[in-house]
């Protein structure tokens, strides 16, 4: 009888340990996308000079049981540029990718792009996708600034993104006259 009890106890311990090992392996394989997104958003926010840009919105993706606010489908950040000659708003959607896949990078899902277009049209605010690629979310190897109105597809080959690559580490500059963020 004691042997049978010990066998069941040992079986239970083995099940618990193997479940813990599987859980640990899964957590290592699956990146924490929320943490990655937050780190990259913080990197992007720091690229806007506080002297000229007011951060109006920094949205988070809150959802529970399929219930979420409409604002979670809006771009991550909304800034207001304030200078002596201009006062204008712009919105930023932050996307970080560790690496291209088969030479392509997914900018966003089609439904997300549609949401950003609807937002831009409804609020009459230009939207830019800032894409970080490689390195870490807090220090990507490459940075691309893509105007939403130039995006036709959800994924692009790397060579197609070349015109939007940002060189240098200086703060961002926005020209309301030309509608460009660099």
Topology (elements, then pairings):
Elements: H1 2-29, H2 33-46, E1 53-58, E2 77-82, E3 87-97, E4 104-106, H3 110-123, E5 127-133, E6 142-147, E7 155-157, H4 158-161, E8 165-166, E9 174-175, E10 180-181
Parallel strand pairs: 3-5
Antiparallel strand pairs: 1-2, 2-3, 4-7, 5-6, 6-8, 9-10
Would you write up a description of this structure?
With 182 residues, this protein is an alpha+beta fold. The chain folds into 2 domains: 1-30; 33-181, Trna Endonuclease, Chain: A, domain 1, CATH 3.40.1350.10. Helix content is 33%, strand content 26%. The protein has 4 helices and 10 strands. The chain has a 6-stranded mixed sheet with strand order 1-2-3-5-6-8. Strand 2 (77-82) and strand 3 form a beta hairpin. The longest helix is centred in the first third of the chain and has 28 residues, at 2-29. It is globular and about 45 Å long. The N and C termini lie far apart (76 Å).
Summarize the structure.
The protein has 182 residues and is an alpha+beta fold. It has helices spanning 2-29, 33-46, 110-123, 158-161; strands at 53-58, 77-82, 87-97, 104-106, 127-133, 142-147, 155-157, 165-166, 174-175, 180-181. It has a 6-stranded mixed beta sheet with strand order 1-2-3-5-6-8. Strands 4-7 form a two-stranded antiparallel sheet.
């Amino acid at each position: 009888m004691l042997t049978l009890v010990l066998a069941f106890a040992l079986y239970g311990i083995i099940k618990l340990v193997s479940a813990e090992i599987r859980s640990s392996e899964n957590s290592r394989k699956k990146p924490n996308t929320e943490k990655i997104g937050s780190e990259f958003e913080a990197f992007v926010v720091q690229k806007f000079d506080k002297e000229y840009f007011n951060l109006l919105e920094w949205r988070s993706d809150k959802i529970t049981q399929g219930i979420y606010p409409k604002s979670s489908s809006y771009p991550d950040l909304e800034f207001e540029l304030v200078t002596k000659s201009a006062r204008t708003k712009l919105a930023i959607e932050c996307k970080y990718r560790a690496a291209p896949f088969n030479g392509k990078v997914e900018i966003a899902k089609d439904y997300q792009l549609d949401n950003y277009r609807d937002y831009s049209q409804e609020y009459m605010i230009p939207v830019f996708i800032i894409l970080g690629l490689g390195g870490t979310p807090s220090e990507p190897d490459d940075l691309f600034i893509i105007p939403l109105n130039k995006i036709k597809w959800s994924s692009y080959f790397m060579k197609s993104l070349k015109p939007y690559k940002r060189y240098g580490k200086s703060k961002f500059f926005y020209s309301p006259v030309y509608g460009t963020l660099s």
